[in-house]
Amino acid sequence: MSSALSSVYAVCSDAAGVAGNLFAFGLFVSPIPTFRRIVRNQSTEHFSGLPYIYSFLNCLICLWYGTPLVSPGVILVATVNSIGAVFQFFYIIIFILYAERAKKLKMTGLLLAVFVLFAIIVFVSVKVLDPGVRQPFVGYLSVASLISMFASPLFIIKLVIKTRSVEFMPFYLSLSTFLMSLSFFAYGILKCDAFIYVSTSSLLADKAAFCAQIFVPNGIGTILGLVQLALYFHFSSTWSEDSREPLIDTYA
């Protein structure tokens, strides 16, 4: 009975993990309509590039976390975030190309800061920390970056409430955030189930760290995604049908 339940949990957890990766890819490609608009209008208008900076930093940290040097056996974390990093980098480059001078300088500086910060993280991980400390160090950094990435679209809430318009809070971004966070939250619950883990002190310590890294950011991401969806449905009836173009940015 225990073996059968363990197999069911393993299948369900893998399914949740695959779903999370699919929704993550959906999150990566969701900015495409906005950047088509930016290229078409030759301007970034009132959009902000900060969400892409946060996302790029998060993808780099999570990519590093998934490498064998940090976390052997979770290469899928590295692959999905490497794809995400490429998407976010190109979004940032396009944003810089079409932004006005002030935004261009700001975004260029932030992009360079991301590379410097990531280089420091890699250097400290490899040259300063022991292998046993390396994984939790990078893991908790990824938690912080994930929370920042999930929270960044909420900058638009004040504008949404003030204008009673959801033009700058896109439905697909909010939905992708919610579904991805919910999938990985479920993945964490299933992976932390007693049928999968053996109750030894060392494994329980690893289990606690794993649960914190999964539950905290994705639990917050689920709540924030739900808040965005609630706002969207509340104000969507007042949004002009003529302006119904999916956007993903926040007001500068």
What is the strand and helix layout of this fold?
Elements: H1 2-29, H2 32-41, H3 50-65, H4 75-98, H5 101-128, H6 131-151, H7 157-163, H8 171-191, H9 201-235
Tell how many strands the DSSP assignment holds: 0
The overall pLDDT average reads 76
| Percent of residues in beta strands | under 5%
Major sheet summary line: none
Terminal-residue CA separation? 57 Å
The helix/strand series, from N terminus to C terminus, equals HHHHHHHHH
Q: Unreliable runs, pLDDT <50, ≥5 residues?
A: 193-205, 239-252
Structural class: mainly alpha
Q: Supply Rg.
A: 19 Å
Overall morphology: globular
| Total of helices | 9
Helix content: over 70%
Would you kindly provide a written description of the structure presented here, covering whatever features stand out?
Belongs to the SWEET sugar transporter family. It is found in: Cell membrane; Endomembrane system. It is a multi-pass membrane protein. Keywords: Membrane, Repeat, Sugar transport, Transmembrane, Transmembrane helix, Transport. It holds the Pfam family MtN3_slv. With 252 residues, the protein is mainly alpha-helical. It is 75% helix and 0% strand. The protein has helices spanning 2-29, 32-41, 50-65, 75-98, 101-128, 131-151, 157-163, 171-191, 201-235. α3 (50-65) packs antiparallel against α4, α3 runs parallel beside α5 (101-128) and α4 packs antiparallel against α5 (101-128). It is globular and about 55 Å long.
